[in-house]
Amino acid sequence: MKTDEMEKHFEGYLESNEYDEAEGLLLSMLRKAYFAGWNAAVLETMRSTPSEPHLTEAP
């Protein structure tokens, strides 16, 4: 497949509903992983310094 043809097909894919759905699922997964890490860090911080309630607030 020629490069120009491949680029045309790839551009079409980027404009598709299929790509939008895949991108949304990846973003959701990344968001969940980030917040899981955030919550773990907050819980660890709370165990070491329970006198600071503002540390439990998410950004």
Task: Give the topology.
Elements: H1 3-14, H2 17-48
Overview of the molecule:
This protein is mainly α. Helices cover 75% and strands 0% of the residues. It has helices at residues 3-14, 17-48. The longest helix has 32 residues, at 17-48.
Provide the gyration radius in Å: 21 Å
- N- to C-terminal distance: 47 Å
What about the largest sheet? none
Give the proportion of residues in helices: over 70%
Compute the number of helices: 2
Query: What spatial form do the alpha-carbon principal axes imply?
Result: rod-shaped
> Are there runs of 5+ residues with pLDDT below 50, and where?
none
Strand tally: 0
Succession of helices and strands: HH
Derived structural class = mainly alpha
> What average pLDDT do the residues reach?
85
Strand content: under 5%
Oligomer: single chain
Can I get a quick summary?
The protein is 75% helix and 0% strand. The chain has helices spanning 3-14, 17-48. The longest helix has 32 residues, at 17-48.
Descriptive keywords:
59 residues; mainly alpha; 2 helices; 0% strand; rod-shaped
